[in-house]
Specification:
The protein is mainly alpha-helical and about 70 residues long. About 70% of the residues lie in helices and about 0% in strands.
Length: about 70
């Protein structure tokens, strides 16, 4: 016989992760723009991928900040 169908309860992401992702998108854009400005201002000083690196670091940092705030509270 077939197993009865079990309805799954709605599962969502934790609150800290949602906040971190949305804040991370904002910080990622700000970091990308700041890296692009730095690259334009002094191309010999910064590597060519500085804008992507700063955007990624901003996104990851915001997830870390949101997680830390959630754990501390």
């Amino acid at each position: 016989m077939a197993d009865p169908i079990v309805k799954k309860k709605g599962v969502s992401l934790p609150k800290w992760m949602l906040q971190g992702v949305f804040y991370g998108l904002f910080l990622g854009v700000v970091g990308y723009l700041a890296g692009g400005i730095a690259l334009t201002a002094a191309p010999a000083v910064f590597p060519a991928s500085i804008d992507v690196v700063t955007g990624a670091l901003g996104f990851l940092a915001s997830l870390g900040i949101a997680y830390t705030n959630d754990v501390v509270q």
